[in-house]
Design brief:
By secondary structure, this protein is α+β, with helices and mostly antiparallel strands. Residues 677-678, 698, 700, 734 line the site of one calcium ion.
Length: 790
Amino acid sequence: MQLRTSFRTKLLLLTIAPLAIAQLVTLVAVMQTVQSDVRERARESLVIGANVVNEYLAARAEQLRSSVTVLASDFGLKEAAASGDRATIISVLENHSRRVGAQMAMLIDLDGQSIASTLSGSLEETGPVLDLIKSSPESEFESTVAVADDSYHVFVVPLRAPVPVGYVVIGFRIDDSLAIKLADLTGLNVTIVAEDLPTTKVIATTDERLAAAGNLGRLTRRPGNSDLVYTVDIPEEQSLTIVSRFVASAPIFVVLQRSLHDAMLPYVEARSGLLMFAAVLLLLVAAASGVLSSTVAKPLRSLAGAAQRMISGDYDSAVNIQSKDEFGELARSFDSMRLAIAEREQRISHQALHHSLTDLPNRENVRLQLAGALDAAKTGCSSVVVLSIRLARMDEISSTIGHDAADELIALAARHLQVNLQAGDCLGHTASNEFVIILNDHDVNDARAAADQITAILDSGIALDRVTISLCAHIGIAEYPSHGHTPDELLRYASIARTDALQNGDPVCVYQPGREEQFNYRLRVVNDLRSAIVGGELQVWYQPKAHLPAGVICGAEALVRWHHPEFGFLSPDDFIPAAEKAGTIMHLTRFVLREAIRECRAWQEADQPLAVSVNLATRDLLDEYLPYHVLQLLKEHDLPASRLTLEITETSIMQNLNQAMLVLECLRDMGVSVSMDDFGTGHSSLAQLRAIPLNELKIDKSFIMTLSEDFQDQAIVRNTIELAHSMNLRVVAEGVEDEATMRRLAEMGCEQAQGYFLCRPIPSVEVLDWLNAYEPINYAERRGSDRAFG
Ligand code: C2E
Ligand code: CA
Ligand code: CA
């Protein structure tokens, strides 16, 4: 809307304003030129008119004078005057007047007395004429005189018979007919005025308004002009004026006027026509620009609407502009853009929900589909199972056949999985070598069967370039509603179950309720372990070992402790297995080794030359740098290798026997003792361990703790000790909780004993105090309390 208004306004302003201004300027210029031209012409016509009037009046005066002269020389008149025949005089005067068109004739004697008059002859009428004659220095003259209400142009000539006997006076009334005559001659307004200071009286005029006013105000002689030119104030009249004297001797003037209004009249009409034309033109232009602006604004509105629809995600409606002009072209370009964007948007949203390699639904898409499946299952009270599948050994395969081939293999595997799906089930590709299957309306048993089928298919091998590659997969299963209720829960539980499957070495594992907490706990513990080592949350405690039968302390086992800021005191069993699985155990081992060797050196310096035992994890046995690291530490603390014993377990050594053997041999060559911990809990017999480079056998506490009661254990322990001795191994018994067991072991020939009876594991700072306070007992010396052993 904003656009339209401003666009219209702009267009209107841009078209109409310049036009209006141009027209106005032209009109003003033309009218100004016209006005000055009209004024100039009027002035010229006035000057010409004044000349014409002067000429005319002069000619007329001459004619009238000669007619008066003729009358004065009339014999009859002279005679009648001489005889005083008044009737004849009047008759002559009247005849003559009629002949020359005079309205007044008089005969006046030399004394200035009226003899005869064509008027009534009353003094009121003759008085002004007599005054005129008396006041005139000349006997023959021309003048004007006002008689009663009329003014006359009078000629006075002496009557001689032959000596002067009087004056003949002939008067011509100055009236409107004269004014009209002059007006006809000049084409101007004519007013004849008598100056009667301070005003000017109108005698005759062609101007009705002046006739009505009867007064012209004051005549002012215009400076610098000829005697004839005066200006005259005519109120409310826009006119040019010129004034001429009617006769030289009298204050009577002919005022010629040219009304500017009249002069302008034809032009004023033309101006109105011009204004009308301009108005019409402006209206036309306004209408045209209105039409133009709506022609422009309409397609623009359509385009703006289309853009708005696109913003709101509607790519289906085309722009509706059919014209063949630029707007049509713009609309077509816009439409192609719309289609291109729609196509790209579709592609992008497809990519956002599909895996680029297999074009299968990706994790987000799987979540959405699972949500839909769960909604349906909730209303239909059915169950949904989620299978989380991970192809194992893909890194290995990829480094053998190359990344591209590995990708192709994964795509082929996906196709195999898809082919075996039932209608309504969904296969998603959630990570490079991970897939998810959603089975609608199935339970855990169906899922197990499907998982078995999948592992069988993958195991049977996938043909890639004439090579068949067998794939191994781990599959975790989670079920709605027994395990979880939301897509996220089910996907997470299925993946926890899959991790369990991997760790247990099983192909398929169903989620165990509660596993998530353990999983999370383990994750936390594993994540926190490294910072715990650096942050000093880990400590190493020591549990002394006594030599049998003398009871002298000969060593101690290093046992790690973790005071977790959130979980509190953690037993090694709580975090060692997790650290082993996560691969962070090596950091822990190195920490304990450093601590134990440093502490052992400190004991030596305190005159307690004990040996120290450190536990190794499965992973440590795969660490080919471990012997080097141990050597470095021993050197650093200047401790003989014989003081160190490393405890390993049967299961850990069996995981990768060859690699473990290399590490162990290396350690034995360095002079470090190797002890087989927890002996008796594994499946291997001593004979099977013959190949392993061992120095010590540590009988598991489960046999020792019950030794005093369990005769079978006594037999096992006795046989084990004998067999170990036959293999040149020293024997340590752990878990000794009473003196009787101590004595029994001493009697069986066991070299060392460790257990709560002697001492619980204690912090390093307490070790020396404990050693100093310790008093050895010789367990070979018989005492009364030992009689229980048979
Ligand atoms: P282990 O190597 O068999 O350690 C002996 C365990 O038995 C210790 O438990 C010790 O406190 C306990 N024990 C000692 N004498 C007696 C006794 O008379 N009666 C009973 N009931 N128990 C006794 P702890 O310290 O909880 O250690 C548990 C396990 O954690 C160890 O078993 C060992 O496998 C592992 N571990 C401890 N520290 C480390 C370490 O620094 N590195 C590695 N890799 N493993 C460690
Ligand atoms: Ca141990
Ligand atoms: Ca043990």
